[in-house]
Amino acid sequence: MKKNKYKSELALIALLWFLVINTGGTGIIDTSLRLQMSHAWWTKDSEVQVTSETKPKMRGDIRFGVLGVDGKRYIAYEQGQSLLMLPGDLLGTWLHYLFPAIPEKSWRQLAVSFLIFIPLNIAAVVTCFWLLKEFGFNERIAQLGSVIFFLGTTFLHYAQIHQQNNQILLFVMIGYVAALAYSFSKNPSLAFMSGLALGGAMLMRITSLIHALSVFLFFLSCLIYQYRERLKQSVPELIKAIGIWILGFIPFTLIGRLFDYWRYGSFFMSGAKMAQIQLTTDPLWNGMPNLEPNFPFIDAHHVGFIGALFDPAKSIFIYDPLLLPCLVIVAILWRKINIYIRIYILVNILNLCLHLLAYSRVSFWGGDLAWGARYHVTSVQLLLIPLIGIFLQSLLSYRGIRRNLMVAIIAIAMVIQLASVTMNPIMELSQKNIGVPGTRLDFRLGQRMINLGCLLNSSLPPCQRATPEQRKYLNAEFNRIIFLPFNWLHQAKDIPVFKSLGRIYLVFWFGILALAIFKTAQILAFSPEINSKREEL
Predict the structure, then answer these.
(1) Are residues 304 and 407 located together in one domain of the fold?
(2) Would you say the pTM of this structure is higher than 0.90?
(3) Same domain membership, residue 438 and residue 369
(4) Nearest alpha carbon to residue 222 among 338, 75, 340, 70
(5) Consecutive 10-residue runs of the chain (537 residues): their mean pLDDT?
(6) Buried b (16+ CB within 10 A) or exposed e, 185-208
(7) Domain count, the chain
(8) Residues 377 and 456 in one domain
(9) Do residues 345 and 379 share a domain?
(10) Whose CB among 64, 157, 199, 330 lies 3.0–4.6 Å from 253's, allowing a Cys bridge?
């Protein structure tokens, strides 16, 4: 009963915070296009929805898709997220017929945002709890670690901006925890579940092959360690486990290949590869400036590799400030950490390095408009899961300055993540694009803190940098709080029903916020049973 209490409290807190930060939309054009794909599949419309007046901005403009089988245009994305959003899209369309005062697009985005992404994000938080438990942390540490994980890492940002990141993270975490649980119980369904989850990750993003290889390496390493004293005799058991894992990996991976065959005419073609090929062959781009040869693979390897580590605009150490102190603690305590956590850490450091290498030459290695290095934050989050547990156990064994310093690090991490979800994610990029003084250094996080300060007090000196024309442009869309009731009130001039809905929901929103803060404070208050002794690592 007590174990269920920890998990249910965690799920409730996650639900409250995800309701607080929800914008009611998809958050970015990529996800809007994937929702467009979902809608097209059951309405038989074209995936590409551009008017005759819309002109491409450059070769490869994603809104215009690629030419596929029979000359039909397709959005050049993997299909996994669109499949996940399909039930929400159906429900949202139906709700529009019942309540037509709210536009169909708004209903579809609301349904997907609340009924698809919030449950998936809660599932990811609960899976984090499960993984920490499997690593040997007690329920209290697992609960605390999971709260800090979703409030103190970039997971929170991608719980609001619905890129594929958190769904991939969910599938990969399931892959790891099921693999670890199998190594303890030898339950075949767990090995199958692990492979199946990684197939799901592949359906979300083709480069999740790196995650699949990492989980498989972790799975194999755990089994070899367990069988180390009778390895030769255990070869049949190893082969059986590997076979079950691969059997689980096949279904969703095969579905992804079938999708691409139906769309592009080849089992070995992907949307990204097709888009790259058609940069020079698609007649839609005729007359447009040529891109560099081999675009988007045009940078030297060190540009994206070092950039993701140290560039102030994208550094994983800046956007996930828990990473560096956690790594320091783990390095100090390495010999005291159990073998399964050590294997996991080494595998995920390799996973991060492989992702750094895979995207290092891509011109948009940092994810363009995304907050942080979008293609790498999932690897960082995976690495952080047991690191946060170890960090917490170390914190609880210290007193005085060291303990206060570690608490301050956690607090700073949470403030940074909450700052990332309060305003429009491209506010700072918009400031740079229109030439607001002081934004050219690309320290986006620092500029976000200034922008939040200016929201509270516009008379501060940094707030006066922009010209009146620049401020007018920014205030029209970007310089504001983006949580759902505020979005509705902002959109009321175009959709009148949002004025009354926004005011009503704002009252509920403040209540949800107050309850979220209260419940989180309860969880983060270290209880005597935890303070009394240091837990084993």
Answers:
(1) yes
(2) yes
(3) no
(4) 340
(5) 81 98 93 96 93 88 93 95 98 97 97 98 98 96 97 98 96 99 96 98 96 98 92 90 98 96 94 92 90 88 92 94 97 96 98 96 85 94 98 90 94 97 90 78 86 88 82 85 96 95 98 97 68 43
(6) eeebebbbbbbbbbbbbbbbbbbb
(7) 2
(8) no
(9) yes
(10) 199
Round to whole Å and give the CA distance between 86 and 28: 18
Q: With the C-alpha atoms ordered 162, 165, 168, 169, is the resulting torsion angle positive or negative? A: negative
Say what the alpha-carbon torsion angle 398, 404, 409, 414 is, to the nearest 10 degrees: 110
Tokens of 332: 């100090």
Question: Same domain for 351 and 449?
Answer: no
CA torsion, ordered 37, 43, 45, 47, to nearest 10 deg: 0
Same domain, 401 and 312: yes
Write out the residue range of the structural domain in which residue 315 sits: 296-420
Residues 396 and 330 in one domain: yes
Q: Which two tokens stand for residue 143?
A: 């609960």
- Judge whether 253 and 199 are in contact, CB under 8 Å: yes
Q: Determine the pLDDT at residue 532.
A: 37
464 with 416, same domain: the answer is no
Residue with tokens 């940002």: 157
Rg (CA), the chain: 24
**What is the spatial distance between Cα 180 and Cα 222, in angstroms, rounded to a whole number?**
7
